[in-house]
């Protein structure tokens, strides 16, 4: 389905692990501008009304797709609704289908996948819609002064990919697939939690964001976003409290291994980590059954304000949302910035509440080992008078 991206994953290696992280400073203004344009459209309030009630997860998926692709391919491609719809469909189809394939014998999986891809069609249409924008980056992008992630991709693309925009488009579709839905899940859970907070705590978060932006001369840049400690804490608590998966960080043993309690793992064994026993460990997280939005920001006060150990993106053996070790999620810094930019714009311009009489604890939807926010749960977005 995705060509040679497994055998030659150059789009994941140096690009995401190094170049993308270095380029985040220049991508934040782009994502901020797109968020400022896309949020009023996504949360469009009809007529003379002062609020709108929307299903949050689907709304955030579409919004995140806009903002992600401003960084990924730039404008105007990030505003092509047909492309964005197809891109969202690719992940919606491919991720569950990858799990379904495990129900089939190995010899039949390739045929089943090809048949499904032909019937679904989202990937091929998505690539076709995306390719003209990729070609424009090939023709005009400056690799030494990149303005999109695709520009960075061109640094490592082999000649055959540069000569065929569709090959590069497949890479971008794959990067988008990994980026959009995970960011949307975090953003949705964060909005549910923000809607549950008392007004006084929302105002504390807003005040900290305004102070951070003012400290950078009134500009919401990467440095300012890095000072959103309360929002960062809330996102980290979302990752701790709302497990995105039942098991993750799966690895396959290449040779026989013996673990600490003496169990022998044969070659080819699949080993996975379950996040809940780690994230709900009372020895590490006091009162672990309670969602505490400021659990981590309280540890970053005074001289400890720059304590990176409490940051949302920080890896540890007690917090495995992004995996552990060498193979931890390399795009987590991009995702964190993107989510914070979106939430900052929403919080600064809207009051967010649950509809009257609606449950304030919408039950998540689980499929196999994955969990996503309740897709039917709604929130009320009321425009603030600034």
From TrEMBL:
Gene Ontology MF terms: heme binding; iron ion binding; monooxygenase activity; oxidoreductase activity, acting on paired donors, with incorporation or reduction of molecular oxygen
Pfam families, A to Z: p450
Alphabetized UniProt keyword annotations: Heme, Iron, Metal-binding, Monooxygenase, Oxidoreductase
Binding site for heme: 329
Cross-referenced CDD domains: CYP503A1-like
Cofactor(s) needed: heme
Annotated InterPro entries: Cyt_P450 (IPR001128), Cyt_P450_CS (IPR017972), Cyt_P450_E_grp-IV (IPR002403), Cyt_P450_sf (IPR036396)
Gene3D superfamilies, A to Z: Cytochrome P450
PANTHER family linked to this entry: CYTOCHROME P450, P450, PUTATIVE (EUROFUNG)-RELATED
Family per similarity comment: Belongs to the cytochrome P450 family.
UniProt-recorded name of the protein: Cytochrome P450
Source organism of this protein record: Mycena metata
Taxonomy of the source species: Eukaryota, Fungi, Dikarya, Basidiomycota, Agaricomycotina
């Amino acid at each position: 389905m995705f060509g040679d991206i497994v055998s030659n994953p150059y789009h994941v290696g140096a690009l995401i692990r190094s170049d993308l992280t270095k380029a985040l400073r220049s991508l934040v203004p782009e994502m901020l501008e797109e968020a400022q344009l896309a949020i009023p459209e996504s949360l469009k309030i009809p007529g003379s009304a002062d609020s709108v009630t929307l299903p949050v997860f689907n709304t955030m998926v579409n919004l995140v797709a806009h903002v992600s692709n401003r960084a990924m391919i730039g404008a105007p491609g990030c505003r092509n609704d047909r492309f964005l719809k197809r891109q969202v469909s690719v992940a919606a189809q491919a991720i569950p289908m990858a799990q379904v394939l495990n129900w089939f014998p190995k010899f039949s999986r390739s045929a089943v996948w090809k048949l499904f891809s032909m019937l679904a069609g989202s990937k091929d249409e998505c690539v076709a819609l995306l390719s003209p924008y990729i070609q424009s980056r090939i023709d005009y992008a400056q690799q030494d002064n990149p303005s999109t992630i695709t520009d960075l991709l061109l640094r490592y693309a082999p000649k055959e990919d540069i000569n065929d925009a569709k090959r590069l488009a497949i890479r971008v579709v794959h990067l988008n697939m990994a980026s959009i839905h995970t960011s949307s899940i975090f953003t949705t859970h964060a909005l549910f939690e923000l809607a549950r907070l008392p007004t006084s705590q929302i105002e504390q978060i807003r005040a900290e964001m305004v102070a951070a932006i003012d400290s950078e001369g009134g500009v919401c840049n990467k440095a300012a976003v890095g000072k959103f400690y309360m929002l960062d804490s809330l996102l980290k608590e979302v990752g701790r409290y709302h497990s995105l998966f039942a098991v993750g960080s799966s690895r396959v043993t290449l040779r026989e291994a013996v673990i600490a309690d003496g169990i022998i793992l044969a070659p080819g064994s699949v080993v996975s980590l379950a996040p809940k026993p780690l994230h709900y460990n009372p020895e590490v997280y006091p009162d672990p059954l309670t969602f505490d939005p400021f659990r981590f920001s309280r540890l970053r006060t005074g001289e400890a304000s720059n304590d990176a150990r409490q940051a949302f993106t920080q890896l540890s053996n007690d917090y495995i949302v992004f995996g552990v070790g060498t193979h931890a999620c390399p795009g987590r810094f991009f995702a964190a910035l993107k989510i914070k930019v979106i939430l900052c714009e929403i919080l600064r311009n809207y009051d967010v509440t649950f509809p009257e009489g609606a449950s304030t604890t919408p039950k998540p939807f689980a499929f196999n080992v994955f969990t996503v926010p309740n897709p039917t749960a709604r929130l009320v977005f009321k425009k603030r008078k600034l």
